[in-house]
Structures are given as structure tokens and as C-alpha cells.
Write a structure and sequence with these properties.
heterotrimer, A mainly alpha, B alpha/beta, C mainly alpha, A: mainly alpha, C: 2 domains, 14 helices, elongated
Chain lengths: ~180, ~280, ~270
């Protein structure tokens, strides 16, 4: 039992593929909290987030075998999680999302941004909220244009045009 | 918990139980006897699966002839060959038995199934098919289903058969644990199970109760009747690892005594009457 | 990748949604690769919420997936626990059903070739299938927890009746479909129905005393013997005519009476 807690995520996932319920429980303990928070930042309704997290870990149980072993388990879980959230949003009427607002970036935060994304990060922070949201959804969350459109409540075509504008602006900034 | 007086069961010309009388209460009671002594028949009778031809039986203060349903609701039973359907997972099997125990509310039933699986330490494999598990784990699945509904009486028919020593040890720990606050009756032909595990023991011989008491009392029967010698002597005698013979019976003068064990007492009880070696 | 990690303060602000979006995005990208920082977020979600969601996950993961037959039973209104018990019988599982369907198909196709004997084959075979199905639904091999079930409060008699009814129904449905499809729409295509009922109920009634598999074998053999000896010289459908059908009904009736009378034997 406590032995499972010393295992790596990859090993736990392997055990889950093998039908080990305890391994799933430990994975849940490690990943559910950040998943809840990250999904809450995409959708303000906690009931929908709970359902999405629930569906995510059931999906982890059922499809553990399909993980190729490449990259982080957390990234794989996020891919499942965001799509489950999209499924939930599709079934219920659209819930207002937290506004992506322009906020003053402190000096310290500038440094942190610089570390994670370098100049790109700083350039990103100067984009308008709509453009930034689109970049975040497609590039950072890994969604397709259609899925991004569903998440943000805009047509896929609009996602595409905004992406093009964002890329153009970023290219300008970084040149 | 169990009161049996003069139980008789005949199959054809075979009087499997021949006037068996004993009682059992809380804690772990062992039914000790050689194969064919009627242990399985008795366990099945205690599980209300079989009815005695003659005699009186009271289980949990009730008469199985009239009040079977109420007894069954407070009973857990692990037969010798539980017969798991191939392809069922641990959870599915225990869930199936839970339905047989009248747990119709799905959520409450699943919680109970999870509880007993946890109690026997099989949570990590609850999603696995039983046929992929080792013998020791399968046995624990059997214990899990017997624990459903928190029964007052648990019956285990030869639960340690076929287990290797390590599995047997872990199994005994489990049984000790579940024996607290309940009546557990287990049948076995191995005296180590009895000495390690049981508060009381009932020795069955030829369908009757040859002895009823604590394992210590069984052991005490052999006090002064076990000795070592260089050659075979006594009615029961066998060679030990270091070349000497261990004998049970009336010790001759000046013989080198040996420390008696429960097994010695048991063998004495089973011993041949005519040779004058009985307890 | 640098050795930058989050501190508690940043974790709190991120969890509370107080970080600006771009910084939050950096944090999120970092979290995907760092379990140390992920664990900083664990106390930021209430335990009660996490436990509640986990309970749902555990239940969804544990719940046995019902097979097709079980789903069918539930669709027609049978309680899910009863459906589970019924569907656990071997003779209600896919391999058995497929084998029965194949046997019936074979018999029906064969009966298209020759005339009298052919049809007789079909009418003889169709009642045997539910008998075999019932024989295999109980006892050691048919039931997942036979011996344990005997000591359980659930009425084995009731279970047996329900299962037999399911076997009879599924077998009859198959035979009806195959019969009507391949043998035309006359009453002949269903002349096996009452014999099915008679033989199955007889098998059940006898099972109160003997091993169901033996009962099934004896009943099936006797039936075959009777059919063959009656029709040996001149194959005819007399056995399945009006008088015959009344006879089968009588046998079924008597068997059910016997079954009811001896129902305590099954517990």
C-alpha cells in the first residue's frame, strides 16, 4: 500500500493498465488537485469541473494501456482532462469563463516569465486578452482549433484568424 | 453460537456423522480430523446447506429446520471448492455473492464489497480476473465473500489446504483477525493450524466427537506419553531428522522423554483403541 | 530547464486565480513536469471535494460492466441486481447462444433439403436446446458460486426459475426467428414450443432430486428415443399435431406442479 506511493507516475500507470486499483488511487492523489485547479481556470462551474475530473480518472483507468510512455504522465492526463471538460461544456449551456484580463506585470513576475518562456512570454503578456486566450488554448493547452473554439465560445474560424494575428504580432515583437 | 447434540448423517450405508455432540462460541474453533471423518459434512450442516438425519442443532440460537433464512443472513461460508466462474474479476465475484446476500442497493453493496476486499488486503487486484491470481489470493477472495454483511458465524472448510507455508502464515493472521468478536469454525487436518490459531478444538473421529477443549488440553493428553528411542517401539513411532525414533504410547521405564505437541495429543486420540493407546 | 520552483505563496495565488494569465500559463507548463510543485497544490483543494470525486471514480471503475444479455434484461425492466444473477449462468452467455443459433440454423437448412425428415429434425432439436441450457445453468459448472449460493439467503428456487425462464425464452426466440425465416410461416415453425416447455419443466422438476446435468441428459435422450422410434418407419409430424400438443401441455403442467411441490428441495 504505502509501497505504491514510492513509485514513479510511469510505473503507477503501468500498474493501472494491469488492473491495480491502488495505483489509480495514488495517481489520483498526485494529479487530481492540480487538475481541478487548472480546469477551474478554464471553467468557473465547480460541478462541471468535478465531473470532468471524475471522467478523466475513469478514462485513465480504462485507457492506461494507450499511453505510449513518451513525455510526462501529467501532460497525458491534462490532454484527457481538458477534453473531458469540453465534453461537459458541450452538454450544458456555456458557462462564463474567467475573464482574461490585462494586468500589470510586476518586476518579479517579469523575471519568472523570462525563465519559462523567455522573450516570448513577455511578448505574450502584451497581447490583447482575446488573442492571448486563443494562443493559450491552442499552444499551451494543446487543443485543436475547433476544440479551442468550443472552450472559448467562439467559432473555429475566429480562432484561426486570431491565431494568425497573434503570430503576426509576436513575430513583430520578437524581431 | 453453535449447539449440536447427537447429529447423525447417513449416505447409503455410510454413517458419516454418528451422534456428534459439541458446542462452539466466539473465537476460532477448529474441527480437526482425518479425511473422511465427516468434517465437510458437518460444515455443510452448520452452513444450513445440509440437514441432519437425526439429532438437534441450534445455530445462533435458532433452529435451522425452521429459521434457515435468518441464520443465513448472519452466516459466512467458504466451501472447499468455491468454484469461481472463469473470467470474473475479484470485484465481480464478491459483488455477485453480495447480491445473493440480498444487498440490493447498488451503491451500498459496492461500498460493502470494497470494504471486505480491503479487509483481506486485495484492493490492488480487485479489478483482476480471479483465474490470474495465486492460490493464496484466491483463498483470500473466498474469505472476503464470507465477510460480507459482517456475519456472526463464519464457516471455513479446509481453508489452508494447498497453501505454501508463507501463504499459510499470512492466512492465519487474517483468520485470527476476523475471529475477534465472531464465531469462526474452520476444518482442517493439520495440527499446526490448530495450535497457531484456535481457541478451541473439536477432534472428529469416525463421525463422533473424540475430544473437545483447548489446543493446550489436547497437547496435555500426550504428557508423559512421548519419548525418543534408538529403535521403533510404542504403537506410533516414526523416525525424526536426527535418526532417532519418536514414539507415542505407554513409555517404558527410563525412556528419554520428549516434549509433547498438539500433534502428539491428536495422534493419541486417533490411535487404535485395541492397542490401548487411547487418551 | 532551470531549477526554478514554485513557493507556497505563488501556489496560493495560482490556486486562487490571482495570477495574471501569462504567468499562470508558465506555472501550468512547469507543473506538467514537476511533481514537487504539484504537491504544493494538494492542500489548496478541499479534502472533502477530492474524496467525493474519488468515491465516484472508484465506483465507476469498480462497477462490473454488464454483458449484452444483462443489458437486455435491464432494458425490459428487470432490476439490475436480478439481471446480474440471471445473466451469470453460462447458458446465457455469448458462446452458448452462438452455438445454439448455429445448431438451429444448421438444422433448419438441413430440413430444407429433404422434406419430412428434415422438418422433424428441426422440431426435435429445438426443444433439446433449452433442456441443455437449463442443465448447464446450475450446479458446479454453470453457476459462479453454487455452493456458496446454497448457504445464502437468496432463494435458489426463485433464481432457478428465473434463469430457466430466461433460457427458455432466449432459446425459443432464436428457434422462432430461424424457423420463421427459413421454414416459412406455417404453424409448423412453432410446433416445438410446447414440447420445449414440457421438456424443460420436466428437467427442472427432476432436478429437485437428481443432478441437473443428468436430468437434462436423460430427458433429452428419452425425447430423441421417442421421436426416432415413433417415426422410424414412416416419418410423420403426428407427434406434433393437435393431440400431441395437448399432451405436451399436460406434461408441462404436471412438471410445474411437481416442481412447486418440491420447491424446498432447492434451498
Amino acid at each position: 500500500m504505502s509501497e505504491h506511493e514510492t513509485w514513479t507516475d510511469a510505473r503507477l500507470l503501468d500498474a493501472v493498465a494491469d488492473g491495480d486499483r491502488r495505483a489509480l488511487e495514488v495517481l489520483y492523489g498526485r494529479h487530481a488537485p492540480w487538475l481541478v485547479i487548472r480546469l477551474t481556470r478554464r471553467c468557473a462551474d465547480p460541478a462541471l469541473v468535478d465531473e470532468a475530473v471524475q471522467d478523466t480518472f475513469v478514462a485513465v483507468w480504462r485507457t492506461a494501456r494507450t499511453w505510449k510512455g513518451k513525455g510526462e504522465v501529467a501532460a497525458w492526463i491534462w490532454g484527457i482532462g481538458i477534453r473531458r471538460l469540453l465534453d461537459q461544456l458541450r452538454r450544458r449551456p456555456a458557462v462564463p469563463l474567467p475573464a482574461y484580463e490585462q494586468v500589470m506585470v510586476s518586476a518579479e513576475e517579469q523575471v519568472l516569465l523570462g525563465i519559462e518562456y523567455g522573450e516570448l512570454g513577455q511578448a505574450m503578456s502584451r497581447l490583447s486578452p482575446e488573442l492571448r486566450a486563443v494562443v493559450q488554448a491552442t499552444v499551451l493547452d494543446g487543443l485543436t482549433t475547433r476544440e479551442a473554439g468550443r472552450l472559448l465560445g467562439i467559432p473555429a474560424g475566429t480562432v484561426k484568424t486570431r491565431m494568425m494575428r497573434a503570430k503576426a504580432l509576436l513575430r513583430e515583437e520578437l524581431v | 453460537m453453535i449447539e449440536a447434540v447427537g447429529l447423525v448423517k447417513t449416505y447409503g450405508r455410510d454413517r458419516v456423522l454418528d451422534g456428534l455432540t459439541f458446542t462452539a462460541g466466539r473465537g476460532v474453533t477448529g474441527l480437526l480430523g482425518p479425511n473422511g471423518a465427516g468434517k465437510t459434512t458437518l460444515i455443510r450442516m452448520l452452513a444450513t446447506v445440509l440437514a441432519p438425519d437425526e439429532g438437534e442443532l441450534r445455530l445462533l440460537g435458532r433452529d435451522p429446520a425452521g429459521d434457515r433464512l435468518e441464520i443465513r443472513r448472519r452466516l459466512g461460508y467458504l466451501p472447499q471448492e468455491p468454484g469461481y466462474q472463469r473470467g470474473l474479476t475479484v470485484f465481480e465475484f464478491v459483488d455477485y455473492v453480495a447480491i445473493l446476500k440480498e444487498m440490493v442497493q447498488r451503491r451500498a453493496r459496492h461500498d460493502e464489497v470494497r470494504r471486505v476486499i480491503e479487509e483481506v488486503g486485495l484492493t490492488s487486484v480487485s479489478g483482476k480476473r480471479i483465474r490470474t491470481l495465486s492460490g493464496g489470493m484466491r483463498r483470500r477472495v473466498g474469505i472476503a465473500q464470507a465477510l460480507l454483511g459482517d456475519p456472526e458465524l463464519i464457516l471455513l472448510d479446509e481453508p489452508t489446504v494447498g497453501l505454501d507455508p508463507e501463504q499459510r502464515l499470512r492466512f492465519r493472521e487474517l483468520i485470527s483477525h476476523i475471529g475477534q468478536g465472531r464465531a469462526v469454525v474452520l476444518s482442517t487436518h493439520q495440527t499446526e493450524d490448530v495450535s497457531a490459531l484456535c481457541n478451541r478444538v473439536v477432534v472428529l473421529k469416525a463421525g463422533r466427537c473424540a475430544f473437545e477443549g483447548t489446543p493446550e488440553e489436547v497437547r496435555a493428553l500426550a504428557e508423559g506419553r512421548v519419548w525418543f528411542s534408538a529403535e521403533k517401539s510404542g504403537v506410533l513411532s516414526w523416525r525424526t531428522g536426527d535418526g532417532l525414533f519418536r514414539n507415542i504410547g505407554s513409555a517404558p521405564e527410563g525412556a528419554r522423554p520428549a516434549e509433547p505437541t498438539v500433534e502428539d495429543g491428536y495422534l493419541l486420540l486417533l490411535g487404535d483403541r485395541t492397542a490401548g493407546v487411547t487418551a | 530547464m532551470s531549477t526554478w520552483h514554485m513557493d507556497d505563496g505563488l501556489a496560493v495565488r495560482y490556486a486562487d486565480g490571482e495570477l495574471n494569465p501569462t504567468l499562470a500559463a508558465s506555472v501550468e507548463a512547469h507543473l506538467l513536469a514537476c511533481d514537487r510543485c504539484r504537491s504544493l497544490l494538494t492542500p489548496r483543494v478541499p479534502d472533502a471535494r477530492l474524496d467525493r470525486v474519488w468515491a465516484e471514480v472508484a465506483d465507476a471503475v469498480d462497477t462490473p460492466v454488464p454483458g449484452p444479455f444483462e443489458r437486455l434484461l435491464r432494458a425490459i425492466g428487470v432490476h439490475d441486481h436480478t439481471a446480474r444473477l440471471m445473466a451469470a449462468a453460462y447458458s446465457l452467455r455469448l458462446p452458448w447462444i452462438t452455438a445454439s443459433a448455429a445448431a438451429l440454423l444448421f438444422a433448419a437448412l438441413a430440413s430444407g433439403e429433404t422434406t419430412r425428415w428434415g422438418l422433424l429434425v428441426y422440431l426435435t432439436l429445438a426443444p433439446i436446446l433449452p433442456v441443455a441450457g437449463v442443465a448447464v445453468a446450475f450446479g458446479r459448472d454453470g453457476d459462479p458460486a453454487h455452493e456458496i449460493g446454497l448457504a445464502a439467503p437468496y432463494s435458489m428456487f426463485r433464481l432457478m426459475l428465473m434463469r430457466s425462464a430466461a433460457v427458455l425464452t432466449s432459446s425459443s426466440a432464436l428457434a422462432l426467428v430461424v424457423g420463421l425465416g427459413l421454414l416459412g410461416g406455417s404453424w409448423i415453425a412453432a410446433a416445438w414450443l410446447l414440447p420445449s416447455l414440457a421438456l424443460t419443466s420436466l428437467t427442472l422438476a427432476l432436478s429437485s432430486r437428481f443432478d441437473p446435468r443428468h436430468c437434462g441428459a436423460v430427458v433429452a435422450m428419452t425425447w430423441l428415443f421417442v421421436v426416432v422410434s415413433v417415426n422410424f418407419r414412416e416419418p410423420s409430424l403426428a407427434m406434433f399435431g393437435g393431440v400431441g400438443q395437448v399432451g405436451y401441455l399436460a406434461v408441462a403442467f404436471a412438471s410445474f406442479a411437481l416442481l412447486f411441490f418440491r420447491r424446498r428441495e432447492f434451498s
